[in-house]
Amino acid sequence: MIYSGTAISVQALDGGIAEFKFDLANESVNKFNRATVEDLAAAVKAVKADSSIKGLIVTSGKPVFIVGADITEFGDSFASGEAAILEWLAQSNAIFNSFEDLPIPTVAAINGIALGGGFEMCLVCDYRVMSTAAKVGLPEVKLGIFPGFGGTVRLPRVIGVDNAVEWIAAAGEKRPDAALKDGAVDAVVAPEKLRDAAINLVQQCLDGKLNWQAKRAEKLNPVKLNMLEQMMAFQTATAMVVGKAGPNYPAPKLALQAMQQHVSLDRDAALKVEAKQFAKVAVTPQANALIGLFTADQTVKKISKKHEKGSNKEINQAAVLGAGIMGGGIAYQAASKGTPIIMKDIRTEALDLGMGEATKLLGKTVEKGRMTPAEMGKVLSRIRPTLNYGDFKTVDIVIEAVVENPKVKTAVLSEVEGLVSEDTILASNTSTISITYLAKALKRPENFVGMHFFNPVHMMPLVEVIRGEKSSDAAVAATVKLAQKMGKTPIVVNDCPGFLVNRVLFPYFGGFDMLVRDGADFQAVDKVMERFGWPMGPAYLLDVVGIDTGVHAAKIMAEGFPDRMQPNYKSGTEIMFENNRYGQKNGKGYYVYEQDKKGKPKKVVDQTTYELLAPIAAERKEFDAQEIIDRCMIPMVNEVARCLEEGIVASAAEADMALIMGIGFPPFRGGACRYVDQIGVANYVAQCEKYAHLGKAYEAPQLLRDMAAANKKFFG
What is the pLDDT of residues 131-189, one digit of tens each? Predict the structure, then answer.
């Protein structure tokens, strides 16, 4: 053994070739944490000191190559400021350079995922051989940063500027065929041939068949483009990147600027430019928020695993009550992830609609080449439409997805409870009705939970698993397990009107309604909130959700929380409802809807909306953008804080992830709790006081007042 550390070992093979193996102790994956970087430095020194080593293959002792940098570790260091980040990058890059400068040929054998820092390690090698089972890429811009271990420097020199811009700005994971086509890897082989192929490449270098020194020199020297070619390449790329990223995601643009600045420099000078730009992007609020989201996502996954341990029950057969679009979506999601499901309704037309929805979604997957027609048939065969309860004795869980009416739901749930086995779980897909209330009609309330899917089911990643007063831990755990099996992210919340997501969404709509009442133009509000980062403004969102659905849910919220959700005025949304303007579902709401060239609804302004609003709205006036933001956001954020106070949701991380995944809270703001952290809790409480005259919804909850007094944050 030439070297043995906690993350890396170096062992001699035959013919002067050595194996440089990443195998991080006590971890399921390899990653670049501080221990690995320190080990890399020590391992390189050991190789330098051993004159018998003529060439290296770089391998992994795990199913992945290297997943990337340990963002939970490095993310914390970004709070130290740009100078500290620059110092850290200088040390790290010196270590990577020392490997790249070894006087021997080096070949990376990429057996599995090599992302971020993991792929940057591959780039410091002279050659790269990739398994057909592997994926590579530089996804850092998804975290609000960009590659900082030389990725923006080496990749353009390996695959050209145009390709490198696309790889880095799009942040995608590349399959072997795409990586080979672009020149990012030199060969693709079957997994069992990977090691031998890497050794063979090193041997060809040693035999003089491959000029590895010339190959390496391309990475050490400037990109071979004249000034005109550079200008054209970067002008085109800048327009594309800025257009796609938008103003709220600075990382892709800053990565491009770094590449443009260092493309004419040698490696060492270029790395300094990359580091300077990286330090600049690492301290942006967007990086803080997106890295925070990554860690929150990891937290949610760990919590789900803990919940799972509470049940040994396997869901081998599911059923959904109520077909139609929602039932069909749930059936599709279960079947596509391998769980057979019975879809039961009382009408043949509804079953046809549900099967049609599943068939449509699968057909689109086939069109995109992600599934064969034979595989589509196999998935469809897992969905069994029926008009009766014949096979319900064998069902492990029944998901009720009938009309949002407590009487109908109660009747259906109590009926099916008498037809299933004693340990079958009943789950309601209600979006607002209390699980504890619905459980009163059941003989086995311990087996009953909420399982709230978001529409459209196939696209929305969140499932709220709602614990009623009598729901057992085992029932909750089994439902969490099923949600994960269906490819969803479950978040467990306690019962209350609207649960978590709808409970905090309707105060946001309330803030919008008050702005319209006070003379704001609903279009102006939409534009401001879309610039803030929401995928659609509140008026447009109400149209998409359905005005009738919104009015119905708002009444339930008002009954549950009358002190702050019961308006003392007639809202514009109620006016739309009374005039049969239900939004996209019937073509008229705040906006009217026409079909675009692709057959999708396109919103168009309708002067009639203003005429209908005139009797209940003050004279039209222009509001400052920040006031619009504050008046919409404060009621929502305050309600999130109340949910934390009351234990409806267990942690700020879960609350933030629920808002991101359930209603499209702007990811670059990190969620409601991180949004408050970035404003500063004391500053946020002061904003609440400024608008307290608008009512209880704007009064800062005690939790936030206490945090402000103690100078505390939700995170860090």
Answer: 999 999 999 999 999 999 999 999 999 999 888 988 999 888 999 999 999 999 999 99
Helix, strand, coil in percent for the chain, rounding step 5: 55, 15, 30
CATH 3.90.226.10 fits 3-283, yes or no: yes
Helix 625-646 with 522-532: angle, nearest 10 deg: 70
Q: What is the pLDDT of residues 52-90, one digit of tens each?
A: 999 999 999 999 999 999 988 876 778 889 999 999 999
* C-beta separation of 61 from 22 below 8 A: yes
Please state, in angstroms and as integers, the Cα–Cα distance from residue 389 to each residue in 316, 321, 393, 424, 425, following that order: 17, 10, 8, 14, 16
For the chain, what are the domain ranges?
3-283, 314-495, 507-709
Match domain 314-495 to its CATH number in 3.30.565.60, 3.30.930.10, 2.50.20.20, 3.40.50.720.
Answer: 3.40.50.720
CB atoms closer than 10 angstroms to residue 349: 10
Catalytic residue among 262, 307, 452, 458: 452
The CATH number corresponding to 507-709 among 1.10.1040.50, 3.30.70.940, 1.10.1840.10, 3.10.310.10 equals 1.10.1040.50
Active site residue 452: yes
Residue of 257, 129, 304 lying closest to 204 (CA atoms): 129
Q: Give the pTM.
A: 0.90
d(CA 230, CA 602): 40
